[in-house]
Specification:
Layout (H helix, E strand, L loop, with lengths): L7 H4 L2 H17 L10 H11 L2 E2 H8 L3 H13 L3 E6 L2 E9 L1 H21 L6 H19 L3
Antiparallel strand pairs: 1-3, 2-3
Helix pairs in contact: 3-6, 4-5
């Protein structure tokens, strides 16, 4: 690398790069007016919109969050009129989540924002093999926590 200009990213550990990308995505999301907290609420709203009929437990599992964290964000989404809960016919203690019409509209806008950001930073250019490898790493990192080393 003689003569080449370097910056902080050249010596940054890989996991720090991932964290930096994630942090900057959240900062980018905050620049958009009329949006919601993308750390929890926005991610949950897009997932509910995408998958339909999820439960609070499903969201906690998908995002690796506590049920309390998910419940707090869902209350905010409900209060803002983006999500509605319906008692599951098969389990009266379980609520099924779906987006309202207002929630559908916002979820679509959030997804467009996410796609635009991914295009701007080049994530859309990653090949499927690279994306699959990153998913594999994410799975292994979770498995390590679930098992004794």
């Amino acid at each position: 690398m003689t003569g080449e200009k370097t910056d902080k990213f050249d010596s940054m550990p890989f996991i720090a790069l991932i964290h930096h990308i994630s942090k900057n995505k959240l900062k980018y999301s905050l620049k958009n007016p009329n949006r919601i907290d993308m750390i929890h609420e926005g991610q949950y709203l897009m997932e509910i919109h995408e998958r339909k009929n999820l439960s609070q437990d499903d969201l906690a599992d998908i995002f690796g969050q506590s049920k309390g964290t998910v419940a707090k964000a869902l209350r905010k989404l409900e209060d803002k009129g983006y999500v509605e809960r319906k008692i599951d016919d098969n389990n009266r203690r379980k609520y099924i989540l779906n987006t309202t019409e207002k929630g559908e509209e916002l979820a679509i806008l959030l997804k467009k924002d996410l796609n635009k950001w991914e295009e701007l930073v080049g994530i859309d250019k990653l090949d499927d093999t690279t994306k699959d490898k990153l998913r594999e790493i994410a799975r292994k990192s979770e498995e390590i926590l679930d098992n004794d080393y």
